[in-house]
Amino acid sequence: GFLVKEQITNAIEILSNWNLKVHLGKNIFSKFYTFAGNDEQRLFDFQNAIDDNSIKAIFCARGGYGTLRILDKINWTKFIENPKWLIGYSDITVIHSCLNNFLTIVSIHGPMPVNFEKLIEEKSSLENLKKILFGKKIKYIFPNEKKLTNTVIEGKLIGGNLSLLYSLRGTKYDFNSNNCILFIEEIGEYMYHIDRMLHNFKFGNKFSGLKAIILGGFTDIKENDSPFAYSLAEIIKETTNNKTPVINDFPAGHSIPNYPIILGQKAKITISNKEIVFEQG
């Protein structure tokens, strides 16, 4: 979606305070119907950020819809030669999937500049994003409210927005779940759509071989006039392997906090009686 400068003023200030030099894409404030410029304009800015060796990290200013339309037009040659951080979530899942699953390059599922203002007071999301950018480890600790069995889980972290992962099924950007930890989040979907997508994953053996499943924010999930018969927990239980640990309410996605995580990189999850510890880096 398109944006105006006021939406990212705070982000520019914060990033500058981190001693980062902020370079705005030529077309960042363009508008083409609901898009932030037409496909050619958005591709131009993204390709330029990839090809410019002086740029060390690419922040996608916001999500919405449209990344899928330019995905097959991106030339990754210079990115492969000179990898850099790619930061975003939601619609940016399609780029994460390309990097993690097709090019085997890691990326950051985390806050975008348009979200920074809402995260200033909460602090920890942006503090941890800064940690990752500057090469430090991250560690998140949560209460073990569901009384999951004590264990230590290690595996490559993959995933992103459920609808976008679903849209890439059967393509070269699709994920291989074997020995991985799958993170999924969603916003504004009907419960029956979620049921359909998770059953698709089940039928495609996407839940087979997983070390764990992490459920991020499932925000503003909608019901029809007649409520859907099953809850998210019930759908997850029905579609996944009962032996696979499921970690609920992980604060990442369309939520506050929105903790950054590194997709394509190994993660360690330690479950004890009282708490769950998530570590990366």
Offer a quick outline of the entry:
Helix content is 29%, strand content 21%. It has 281 residues and is α/β, with parallel strands linked by helices.
Protein architecture, described:
The protein is of the alpha/beta class and 281 residues long. It has two domains: 5-133, Rossmann fold (3-Layer(aba) Sandwich); 138-280, Glucose Oxidase, domain 1 (3-Layer(bba) Sandwich), CATH 3.50.30. 29% of the residues lie in helices and 21% in strands. The chain contains ten helices and eleven strands. The chain has helices spanning 9-17, 39-51, 67-70, 77-81, 93-102, 116-119, 124-133, 162-167, 191-203, 232-239; strands spanning 57-59, 85-88, 107-109, 138-143, 151-161, 180-187, 212-219, 246-247, 261-263, 266-271, 275-280. A seven-stranded mixed sheet has the order 4-11-10-5-6-7-8.
